[in-house]
Write the structure tokens for this entry.
Amino acid sequence: MSSEEFEKLHEIYRSLYDELKLIPDKAVGCHGEERRKLVRTFDERHGEAMEVLQGMEGELRAAPSSYRNAMNAKLRLYHRDLGKLQRDLRASSPGFGSSRQTMEGSNYGIYSSQNQQSTHLQSQRALLLQGTEALNSASQSIERSQRIANETEQIGTEIIDELGEQREQLDRTRNRLVNTGENLSRSRKILRSMSRRLMTNKLLLSVIILIELAILGAVVYLKFFR
């Protein structure tokens, strides 16, 4: 609902109503053609006021329920006020009924057609407003879905990047482990080689000591026992 449009219609109605409520008092002191002119003016303004009220009702169809209920009650009062003005004019103008019936013969079809057309246009406008609101809601829902999809895509891209970095870290760690394993293998080989050399050196040293003891024993024997 356009609150600005509703306020404009409300101002138009108040202007028409202010003009209508003066006519019954004027009709009391008028006769003949002047009275018929006032009756015609009243009918025209009354029809315009009814169309304005229909327009206001159409605007209220798209309004929030709390606001719509209050305004509908006010519109019912406006319809009652227009009916009261009609009764006041009929009471102040004895010829109002016959004059109105004569005028209705020529004007009723026009007003009826105009009112039906106005009602049809207002219903179409209300449907159009509902369709527009539905489209806006759908557009907002699509925008939210697209925003969520973009955020999800961004999060997925960040996760993929993080997984790529973690994979690179795992590859580097695996390479370091492979290198460490190779180093350990070389170290074990070196230790085994050193262990073999140590045993060989011990054996050589033992042989040398035995040879030296044998030589020393031979020298002692030759020197003291021969």
In short: The two ends are 143 Å apart (CA to CA). Confidence is low (pLDDT under 50) at residues 95-112. The chain is about 95% helix and 0% strand.
